[in-house]
Specification:
There is one protein chain. The chain is mainly alpha-helical and 765 residues long. It has 5 domains: 266 residues, Rossmann fold; 170 residues, no CATH class; 80 residues, no CATH class; 128 residues, no CATH class; 33 residues, no CATH class. It contains 24 helices and 7 strands. The protein has a 7-stranded mixed sheet with strand order 1-3-4-2-5-6-7, sandwiched between helices. Strand 3 and strand 4 form a beta hairpin. Helix 10 packs antiparallel against helix 11 and helix 13 packs parallel to helix 15. It is elongated. It is found in: Endoplasmic reticulum membrane. It comes from Picocystis salinarum. This is Protein ROOT HAIR DEFECTIVE 3 homolog. Its EC number is 3.6.5.-.
Length: 765
């Protein structure tokens, strides 16, 4: 077909690149000027087509775009029709200027096996076209060479190398569709394109780019042109609408061009020159292609044969049941069998191809080995974890420090795993087998670390319990003793006891945990926990004492009221000042209550000191008050809550009321006893007139006694004897009177209170 030939309707068709690879500079300008679109600017589209020779490319373009490219005459045999690259405007796309490139078919016998031109033309189409149509037969879907994947792979890779590609619409037109659903065909082609995309070498900046960033892949199926021509033309008409109507579903209207149409010829020429000068498009020799295909087949057959063999199935079953000691050697034997068979069958093919495919065979074997390897790695993890746990417990039972024992067990476990893993990795591809091994190594480390952490935590907790028990033993008796009879130094003593117990416990803890190699911060944290434990223990005892404060108030009252300054029981004679003694005893009881109102463990702060002072003043006010009504007593206490309070003001009032009821009984008994003493003393003396009569009438006898020393001594002796007799028998009457008063009251003062200060009186507590 001559380059200057035009269609009978006047639409110019020009040969842009001749069969020898010469670019015709004026061809594209001729088309642009001939159809009057030179002023279209960027508003145009360029559509190209690629596919096998005699696959109906020209027929498809003519049917869709209304062009008149030369079509193959089937009656004259199947042979090359389109030679070179041809260009024409699409007459049936009136809405937008559309230029169409008809490419020479690939895989033609005329070009032979060293066909570089088909790759050059295909790359040219991909570089300049907005929409690249890939024309293919339905029965070629899923094939390697038949589907044109090697050609696509080459041109896509070189396209990245030579140019800066933008997004291109890649339209797969599947001819002579069969019963296979379109969705299944699309799925296969998309998967093939994704694999093809992953296999090509991309520039560094596009290493992680996705296929969709550069290619918008679409699919169309068409019926057979020869068997269903009318249906074929109807569907190509629908396809044409996708190139002209943006609103059409799955529209193929491309974006605005990046090069003005009047500069398109120059741009295309520079692209072609770049492609021709590149040497990466040379085809491999026919022998290389045959060697590649055959060696690949041999490797695949050997892998399938191995997978279906009884020996391999037995090996896999064994790997799934237990840890096999000879796993690496058995796997290596299987691999060597495959390699031996491969070498025997591929010995006559190209050496480089044989070597490359042999490496692929090792990779395929490694992929087959992954499943049993993963099973073995799980068994290995369990075995090493058990061994490590046992070794750790043995080392600890021998008295070895935890940190040292853990490091030794970890080192042994890691060494054993690395030895086993190196044997396995030496069998096949490290790239394939390395993933499961690294994953297993990470899992083993995580499990081993968890085991060590759990055992370490258990050891620390055991030590903490032992030290806590020791602190409890240290504090129990002294704290109970201090709370039996609280003094003004109670809280200072309790704080001191807590500090002493905490220090002793911390020193013991550091000594016991020395082998755990804990940091200073961790040890300090545990010591703080022990201090809190000691404080909580003491605080619990104090709270218990505060809930039973009434017996302690009674003890404090008794110590002041029932005994004198020498600690001797009071006889309640006429000289005893009961009101003063009562006031002093009440204040002692009030101080005891105030001591147990507010928690003062540890250093005092301003709020605590204010609360303590407020409690002391309020309770002393209550002690010196004459009121006995509980509601009236509540008015004497502070209205605000005390911080760190052990007893609320209301609880203090209730405790004072219970105490005061018993105290009043003791006071009344003391007063009754004193009154009985006074009555007895008055009853034992003779009347005054009797004493006067004795003095007058006995004057002579008195003088006689004074004059006689012997008689004087006798009288003095009789007086002493009479005094003794009086003191022995004359004081019985007051004692009987005091006993009668006590019996009238129903009980003796605070009967049974001294048995236990922690137990309240049955009547009041």
């Amino acid at each position: 077909m001559d380059a200057s030939t035009c269609a009978s309707e006047g639409e110019p068709i020009q040969q842009l690149v001749d069969p020898e690879g010469t670019y015709r500079r004026d061809a594209l300008d001729c088309v642009v000027r001939g159809v009057g679109v030179a002023k279209s600017g960027l508003d145009y589209a360029l559509v190209a087509i690629m596919g096998p020779q005699s696959s109906g490319k020209s027929t498809l373009l003519n049917a869709v775009f209304g062009t008149t490219f030369r079509e193959m005459d089937a009656m004259n045999g199947r042979k090359q029709t389109t030679r070179g690259v041809w260009v024409a405007k699409a007459p049936k796309c009136q809405d937008r200027c559309t230029l169409v490139l008809d490419m020479e078919g690939s895989d033609g016998r005329e070009r032979g096996e060293h066909d570089t031109y088909e790759k050059q033309s295909a790359l040219f189409a991909m570089a300049v076209a907005d929409v690249l149509i890939v024309n293919m037969w339905c029965h070629d879907v899923g094939r390697e060479s038949g589907a044109g994947k090697p050609l696509l792979r080459t041109v896509m890779q070189v396209n990245f190398k030579l140019f800066h590609p933008t997004q291109t619409v890649l339209l797969f037109v599947i001819r002579d569709r069969s019963k296979t659903p379109k969705e299944k065909l699309e799925q296969v082609l998309r998967e093939d394109m994704e694999k093809l995309w992953e296999s090509i070498q991309k520039p560094e900046k596009h290493k992680n780019s996705q296929l969709q960033e550069f290619f918008d892949i679409k699919f169309v199926t068409l019926p057979s042109y020869e068997e269903k021509e009318e249906e074929f033309r109807a569907e190509t008409t629908l396809l044409r609408r996708k190139f002209s109507d943006p609103e059409e579903p799955s529209s193929l209207v491309p974006r605005r061009a990046s090069v003005p149409i009047d500069a398109l010829s120059l741009s295309a020429e520079k692209i072609w020159e770049t492609i021709v000068e590149n040497k990466d498009l040379d085809l491999p020799a026919h022998q290389i292609m045959i060697a590649t295909i055959r060696c690949d087949q041999i490797a695949s057959e050997l892998i399938l044969e191995l997978r279906d063999s009884d020996r391999w199935k037995g090996f896999v079953q064994m790997c799934n049941q237990t840890l096999a000691e000879g796993f690496a050697s058995e796997a290596k034997a299987h691999l060597e069998g495959c390699l031996t068979g491969y070498d025997e069958e591929s010995m006559y093919f190209d050496e480089d191809v044989r070597t490359a495919k042999k490496e692929e065979l090792v990779i395929k074997f490694s992929e087959l080995l992954v499943a049993p390897l993963e099973s073995q790695l799980l068994f290995l993890q369990e075995s090493l974890l058990r061994q490590g746990t046992k070794s750790l417990e043995d080392a600890l039972s021998e008295g070895q420090g935890f940190s040292k024992a853990a490091d030794a067990c970890t080192g042994t476990c890691t060494k054993n795993f690395d030895t086993w893993a190196d044997l396995c990795l030496s069998v096949g591809s490290r790239d394939v087998l390395g993933g499961p091994v690294r994953h297993a190594e990470k899992a083993l480390k995580s499990s081993f670390d968890a085991m060590l952490a759990k055992r370490k935590s258990k050891g620390i907790q055991t030590t903490l319990k032992e030290v806590s028990a020791r602190i409890t033993d240290i504090l129990s008796e002294p704290v109970v003793a201090l709370l039996e009879e609280p003094s003004s130094s109670l809280w200072r003593s309790l704080t001191s006891k807590v500090a002493e117990a905490s220090d002793e416990g911390c020193a013991l803890l550091k000594s016991e945990l020395k082998g755990f190699a804990l940091s200073e911060e961790e040890l300090q944290g545990h010591c703080e926990d022990l201090k809190k434990l000691a404080e909580e223990l003491v605080e619990g005892r104090v709270k218990e004492a505060a809930q039973h404060v009434v017996p302690r108030m009674r003890n404090a009252f008794n110590a002041s009221f029932m005994k004198d300054s020498r600690g001797l029981p009071r006889t309640w004679g006429r000289k005893e000042d009961i009101p003063s003694i009562t006031k002093e005893a009440y204040l002692r009881a009030a101080d005891t209550l105030a001591l147990l109102c507010v928690r003062r463990l540890g250093p005092d702060n301003e709020n605590v000191l204010e609360a303590v002072e407020d409690a002391q003043v309020s309770i002393r006010r209550l002690a010196t008050s004459s009121t006995r009504d509980e509601s009236a007593s509540s008015a004497l206490l502070s209205k605000r809550a005390w911080p760190h309070a052990l007893l609320t003001p209301a609880e203090c009032v209730r405790a004072w009321s219970r105490f005061d009821a018993d105290a009043q009984l003791a006071i009344s008994q003391a007063m009754a006893t004193q009154e009985a003493h006074a009555r007895a003393a008055r009853a034992s003396l003779p009347p005054w007139w009797a004493l006067a009569a004795i003095a007058v009438l006995g004057m002579d006898e008195f003088m006689t006694v004074l004059r006689s020393p012997l008689l004087l001594l006798l009288v003095v002796g009789l007086v002493v004897i009479a005094r003794i007799i009086y003191l022995r028998f004359g004081g019985v009457q007051p004692a009987i009177a005091a006993a009668a008063v006590a019996l009238a009251g129903g009980r003796t003062p605070f009967q049974g209170e001294r048995a236990s200060t922690g137990t309240s009186h049955p009547k009041h507590d």
